[in-house]
Amino acid sequence: MNINKFFTKFNSCPLCNSKKRSIARYSHKHRYAEQISRILNIDLNTLIKKIRNVKCNNCGLIYKSLWFKKKLYKSLFNKYVPVHPKGWDSGNRLNRFSKKNLKKAINLLINSIKSNNLENRGFAKRDAFSIVDSIQANSNLEKKLKKNYLVAIINENISHIEKNQFKMVHSLNIPERFKRFSNFSDEKLFYHIQKYIGKIKYYGEVGCPLWGMLQIAKNNGSKTIFISGDESIFWGKKCQVKKKYCCSEIDKSTKFIKKGINSCKGKKLDFLGIFVYLDHTTQPLKLLKKAFSVANNVGIILAETKNPGFPGVSIQHFSGWNNKTMSYVAKKFNKKLNYNFKDIKVSGYNFFLLYQPPPDVDVHL
């Protein structure tokens, strides 16, 4: 099979149109890479080498020089992985964050290593890792236990995993901020935004309805709007658990714009959150233009491009963004840029606030 028919070449930067670029790190191996390799019936290592990350020498954007055609990419989120796992795990909706489930996940990992079950091992590692990584470790002893256990999971150090299983399971208490079972629902982040842009009367989000700050905004007196994502690049109507559609979780008082951001007209929002969505589109400039046409201020959450644990922009993400890239965006749209909210970095993400401060807000306070 000629797999080239599934890809489109990108010879210039989709943000600034520069053709000058350099080679960036390969994507790392994970669930989506494994899934795509099965779809295309291609060796995983071959796939990762084929879908190269390149870095624009002008604006710093990291993007794929070869990318999936629309039909294949859409099928990834609507057929092969139709349920957004991190979205549904937010707020521990599925009750996966528990001592019982952690013990079960660790036992599955141990058994898959001992039996050399390669099919289950990848899932078991990710499952156990995601729960352990989300545990709030307070003391130095707890932090050391957690760190060493995560390393043992990655390296499949079965003796360490078995020896410290009881301690690890019984250390589980509450989910750590910004990790998988909390994600981006965080009051301190909301207050950080208001510090720079003032009171948010109209708050909006685009993308996933499950992992943001819609409820926090509502609790703080904001009128809320949720804008559905583009199903050709993101999860959509098939994102269901027990026949429950993810968007049914949206509070009834929140205005739900089902036709996407392109159907929005007029500048109606004080703030629009674009959380881990911008990196899915091959037309980031178009999305940003539309975002600033409906909102005075935009907050963007994206994966850290220099995360040592997961180097390289993930294969399911078209682009990777950094401070230099966002500085380019801020200048282009005549906005100020803030990226000093450090609390979120523990999760491997960055928060970029592109804003225009009102006259009565002193951001130096």
Structure description:
There is one protein chain. With 365 residues, the protein is of the alpha/beta class. It has 3 domains: 3-83, no CATH class; 98-170, no CATH class; 187-355, Rossmann fold, CATH 3.40.50.150. It is 36% helix and 17% strand. It contains 13 helices and 15 strands. The strands form 4 sheets. It has a 7-stranded mixed beta sheet with strand order 10-7-6-11-12-15-14, with helices on both faces. The protein has a 4-stranded antiparallel beta sheet with strand order 2-3-4-13, with no helix packed on it. Strands 1-5 form a two-stranded antiparallel ribbon. Helix 6 packs antiparallel against helix 7 (140-155). The longest helix has 16 residues, at 99-114. The model has no long low-confidence stretch (mean pLDDT 92).
Concise overview:
The chain is α/β, with parallel strands linked by helices. 36% of the residues lie in helices and 17% in strands. Strands 10-7-6-11-12-15-14 form a seven-stranded mixed β-sheet, sandwiched between helices. The chain has a four-stranded antiparallel β-sheet with strand order 2-3-4-13, with no helix packed on it.
